Amino acid sequence: MPDPLRDLEYINVGISTDREWTPGVKIPLHSGFHYILEGSYAVRAECFGARTLKRGDLLAVFADRLFMLEGRFRYLFLSIRGDGCVPFLRACGFTPEAPFCPGAPEEIYYPMHELLSGMHGGRRDHPFFFAARLMRIGEILRDRMMPADERRSTPPYAEQVRRVMEETEYRCEGVTEAAAHLAVSPDTLRRACRREMGVSAIEYLTRLRLERACKLLRKTSYKIAFIASACGYRSEKYFITAFRRRVGTTPARWRERHR
To answer: Where would I find the HTH araC/xylS-type domain in this sequence (predicted)?
Structure first.
C-alpha cells in the first residue's frame, strides 16, 4: 500500500473564531480539514450543490477548488500542502465532489487539538509528532467514510468527467464529446450531472475550466490568451466573457487581487 503521507507537508493548525464571511468565490490556498466547533456556515459549489455545516461536522478542503462560503462560526482547521494532499484526502474517503463528513466522530477532535498544542509547545519541527497525528486523523476518517465508497463499483460521473478534462488537457469541447470518452450517451451524462451535482453538464464543464483558469491566473504569469487556450476556450474574448459572468470580474482584475 502506498505511503499516505508521501509528498505531503503539514502547514498549520488553528481555531478560526467569529469570522464572518460575505458571499463570494473562495479559492483555498491549501488542502486540509475544517471541524466545526460552534455556529454553522453554508458552503456551495457547482460540483456538490449547497450544504450547511453545523457543530460536529467536518469539511475536507481541496486546494484551488472554487466554492462559495458564508456564515458565522468557530472551527478548528488543519492545513496541508504538497502533491500528496489529494491522494491523502481520497485515502480518507473524500473527493472534491463529496467533501463532507456530517457528524464526524468526536475522537477526530483530539489529534487535531494535539497538533494545535504542539504548534505552541515547541514541537512544530518534530516530524514524528505531526506524522503520527495526521495518520490517526486519516485512520479515523477512513473508518468512517470508506465503507460506502468501497461498495461503489465505479467513481461518480462528476469525478469521471473531471478526469476526462484533465486527460484531454481541457480540449473536450462539450457534453457529447465528454460522453463519448465515458462510453455513455449524452442524455445519460446530462441526467447524471443533474442528479449528482444539481447543475447541467455544460455548466459543470464550464466550472472545471474556470477552476483551472483561476489556478493558472494565481500561480503563473501566463498571458490571458494563453490561459484561455489552456482551459479549452477558442478565443480570449469568449473566455473573458465567461469568466466575468460567473466570477464577477475580469481575469486580469481577479489575478491582481489573488496574486
So the answer is: 159-257
